[in-house]
Amino acid sequence: MNELAKQDPQVAQLMKLEANRQKQGLELIPSENYVSPSVLQAMGSILTNKYSEGYPLKRYYGGNEFIDKIELLAIKRAKKLFNVEHVNVQPYSGSPANLALTMAVCQPGDTVMGLNLIDGGHLTHGWKVSATGIFFNSVPYHVLSNGRVDFNEVKLLAKKHKPKLIWTGATAYVYQYEFDRFAKIADSVGAYLVADIAHIAGLVATGNHQNPVPYVHLITTTTHKTLRGPRGAMIMVTKKGLEKDAELPSKVDSAVFPGLQGGPHDHTTAAIAVALAEAAKPQFRRYGTQIVKNAHSLATALMNQGFKLVGNTTENHLMLVDLTPFFGPGGGYFAQYALDQAGITLNKNTIPKEPSSPYFPSGIRLGTPALTTRGMKQKEMIRVAGWINEVLTEINHYRLPSDKKDRKTYLAEFRSEVNQNRKIKRIKMEIKQFSRAFPIFAW
Ligand SMILES: Cc1ncc(COP(=O)(O)O)c(C=O)c1O
């Protein structure tokens, strides 16, 4: 870091400011986390210098003796942790992993089914502007007004459209994913079933979520959310997958390389191996359990303050707050901005049967993985809920103009008023002080 500060003070200074932001605020975005010093060290290593196109012992470049061993170690650890038959650790991130998976089992134009984006699904499960929705025939399914997947609809759509592939998993879903119910439907129409466990991988690894392995053919995951590794991803093939199609491992591998990618990011592969070893330790098991306890405590505290939660619950690490009672439709923007100014980071999010739009949604999404990494427990969640309530009560008179032309000026005024708000400034100081007791590792 000192070398960087000497050579490039501009970048070093911005990194320092970002480190301070991470230390002094409360990170509630459910897809974020703080990695360990060991993961960070592997990421920031000389492994970034290397090219290794291909797979272990079958590379297109020389000098891969040690890289091969690192990749094989990452694969071995992932297979053991998740109890799967085959793992590819090369996808650059979750989105390319999901596109590669689709390419592995579908031809362009084939039908895929996934949870609609606005209902909590991910872009790469077939949303119309994603490559997975442009090059494949995407048939989305939806949630009911309580936020649960509408299994009647899934069944009807599967029967009617005979998809090649069905996605389970989501980016904003407050219940346990019901892999068993999806399996019945996918098996009845002969579809491949894939679980995208990007959000819940850490909870699956620690036994705090139903395990998809007995039910699905394929699993994708990012490695940087609850799994607490570097930004990366993995694609896994289960025993059930091999039984359906013995070629799945080679189909997956050739879809990743050369189908979609070139050289793997070897520094990321090493950091994934480190994170997987961490995730196999007893303290990580305790971490997974604490994430869920904290989510429950935060959800209860928010409901006690009068907030309306989608489904009135959380069964995993995240919750969705329906802010329509506070702001009417489209209030997520106000909440995200004002909370950010107070040092609480979360994201605006659509709610089931969203009355507004994805850019101006009516809810917020928040979760506990990052705060749990900092050592916070149920007691601290109650304080966090209190601050959220104070900030939102302070701004609950704002309303999103229904005429789009009026929004720019209105929002600029809103931001300027929030920036000057003394109560929000006071809360930011309180949070800064509070955060000191829960240090994070940073260079
Ligand atoms: C369920 C799910 N799948 C895939 C992804 C994509 O991951 P990435 O952002 O690494 O491309 C995300 C990211 O938010 C996600 O929530």
Automatic annotation (TrEMBL):
**Enzyme Commission number(s) of this protein:** 2.1.2.1
- Residues reported to bind (6S)-5,6,7,8-tetrahydrofolate: L117, G121, H122, L123
Task: Give cofactor(s), names only.
Answer: pyridoxal 5'-phosphate
Instruction: Locate the site labelled Plays an important role in substrate specificity.
Output: H224
Q: Which GO terms describe its molecular function?
A: glycine hydroxymethyltransferase activity; pyridoxal phosphate binding
Residue ranges constituting the Serine hydroxymethyltransferase-like domain according to the UniProt record: 4-388
| Protein name according to UniProt | Serine hydroxymethyltransferase
- Gene name, Swiss-Prot/TrEMBL: glyA
Q: Where in the cell is it found?
A: Cytoplasm
GO CC, any one term:
cytosol
**Similarity comment: family membership:** Belongs to the SHMT family.
Q: State where it is primarily located.
A: cytoplasm
The record's listing under InterPro entries reads:
PyrdxlP-dep_Trfase, PyrdxlP-dep_Trfase_major, PyrdxlP-dep_Trfase_small, Ser_HO-MeTrfase, Ser_HO-MeTrfase-like, Ser_HO-MeTrfase_PLP_BS, SHMT-like_dom
